[in-house]
Amino acid sequence: SEERSLNFIEQIIEEDIAAGTHGGRVLTRFPPEPNGYLHIGHAKSICLNFSLAQKYGGKTNLRFDDTNPVKEDVEYVDSIKEDIKWLGFEWAQELYASDYFEQLYQFAVQLIEKDLAYVDEATPEQIAAAKGSPTVPGTPTPARSRSIADNLDLFARMRKGEFKDGEKVLRAKGDLASPNMHLRDPLMYRIKHAHHHRTGDAWCIYPMYDFAHGQSDSIEQITHSICTLEFIPHRPLYDWFIAQLGIFPSHQYEFARLNMSYTIMSKRKLIQLVQEGHVRGWDDPRMPTISGLRRRGFTPASVRMFCERIGVQKRDNLIDFSLLEFCIREELNKTAPRVMAVLDPVKVVITNYPADKVEILQAENNPEEENSGTREVPFSNTLYIEREDFMEVPAKKFFRLGPGLAVRLKYAYVVQCETFEKDASGNITTIFCRYLPESKSGNDTSGLSVKGTIHWVSAAHAHQAEVRLYDRLFSVAEPGNEEGDFKSFLNPDSLQVVENALIEPALTKARAGDRFQFLRKGYFTVDVDSSPEKLVFNRIVTLKDTWAK
Ligand code: ATP
Ligand code: MG
Ligand code: MG
């Protein structure tokens, strides 16, 4: 990999190792909430956590942050594991915050015993009002002066299920005058009579993020707990709980979350696109989800390269989607076999080529890859080319076909257009050409030099395929930051389906997940919707950078 200077987290880790902190041990974790499919923002966090551990001889835990029973599901647990594996990482342990519910409960009891937590029956509105504002100190609610014994009793009864949802909460006894609002007696537990996807009905009280996360890190002895910038104001609370409990001192570090143009990075919003049918599912190739990118044809290496290139920042920024496209192009240019497919076919008849003759041409699979071999491409007197490669009245510098113009057919011959036919509505139906027998590719003795080379398929040998062309999911750069419903900014043309593209016969052996360069058209992958009768291709990316311009 490329030489680069250390990012700020690597610097911290190297200092810790040099100082012998935690015996020089590095243990990170990736802590998804299983309430949706992972997106490319999570990929950044995964790459960061796993690569840091790899680089410093450490390990990474996968911990499901499953403290909110209502929105969580095993479907999401499974998809998250699949996505991490696909990215190429192996976690040391698969863990669940819900496995710590008993331990977290005991931690809460310890804090009550130290008079550092209390049960409050004030309503959310009363609690909010009593908290004050950053400039106005908070005031205690009546419950704050309750005795330790009464708090222990009430908290035990909360657990037993004696109260309804929202009737009581457990709060930390923090500092009601703190300029940091998170320290003004934050909630630790709430009552929720809900079925949990792992613990079932064992619990009706659930810990809040702030009380679960740091303690879970500590239980696992995580050395570097890396999260996004919005958690900076939570860090004093993270440290406070650990200090008061006297448990392993995990430490939180924050980096800038990934934001990407023309898409959104929020499971809460992505789930709306799925549930309301704006896309075909979590793995719709237009989605910024890891499963969507995978189906679209992105490779694990391209996603990892993207995450490495964007680096680790301390300030929020907006990354252009075209950087991810650059990464996949870099890779596929070297690895993807070249093939010919015509997306918008128009017929060409070669008038001086025998009607009953079929020539089998040898086509190189990939000029960028040594030993990639050749394949057989049949050539005959009736072909299809792209409609856009012909102009009835050729523009200046149009080096393709038009009356009198000559062009090279890739791997084959130079042909010159003589005439053409149109239908009643003026569409070109057939182009008539002559070919130059002595201009055969690899053995050209014609002495002719033509500027353009175009792709084609032989009419009798081509197969039909469906091709799906994708564009940005949203038509504005920052749909999440616009006023109004983000869904009103969906790009209505984000999917264009070409029902009857024509592909060269060698392609019919392709399997779901295979990737190709369709000459001049971009990189494509075979979609899982393919059937033996008809292949379906997704365009991964065009050949040239057409985005962000
Ligand atoms: P969302 O708002 O999409 O639900 P989240 O942060 O609530 O995201 P989690 O499942 O809690 O989702 O995230 C797991 C980990 O991934 C966290 O450590 C979180 O900080 C990180 N993460 C989430 N989104 C991004 C992002 N856009 N860029 C970098 N890291 C992210
Ligand atoms: Mg979260
Ligand atoms: Mg979330």
UniProtKB/TrEMBL annotation:
Which keywords does UniProt give here? Answer: Aminoacyl-tRNA synthetase, ATP-binding, Cytoplasm, Ligase, Nucleotide-binding, Protein biosynthesis
Motif interval(s): 'KMSKS' region: 264-268
Question: Where does the record say this protein resides?
Answer: Cytoplasm
Q: Which GO terms describe its biological process?
A: glutaminyl-tRNA aminoacylation; glutamyl-tRNA aminoacylation
Which coarse location class describes where this protein primarily resides? cytoplasm
A Pfam family reported for this protein in Swiss-Prot or TrEMBL = tRNA-synt_1c_C2
Q: Name one GO molecular function term.
A: ATP binding
Q: What is its EC number?
A: 6.1.1.18
Q: Where is the signal peptide?
A: none
Its top-level enzyme class, in one word, is: ligase
Q: Which SUPFAM superfamilies does UniProt cross-reference here?
A: Nucleotidylyl transferase, Ribosomal protein L25-like
Tell me which residues make up the tRNA synthetases class I (E and Q) anti-codon binding domain: 453-527
Ranges for domain Glutamyl/glutaminyl-tRNA synthetase class Ib catalytic: 26-333
Name the residues that bind L-glutamine.
D65, Y209
Protein residues bound to ATP = 33-35, 39-45, 228, 257-258, 265-267
Similarity comment:
Belongs to the class-I aminoacyl-tRNA synthetase family.
NCBIfam families recorded: glnS, PRK14703.1
Quote the protein name from its UniProt record. Glutamine--tRNA ligase
Species of the source: Chitinophaga costaii
Which gene underlies this protein? Answer: glnS
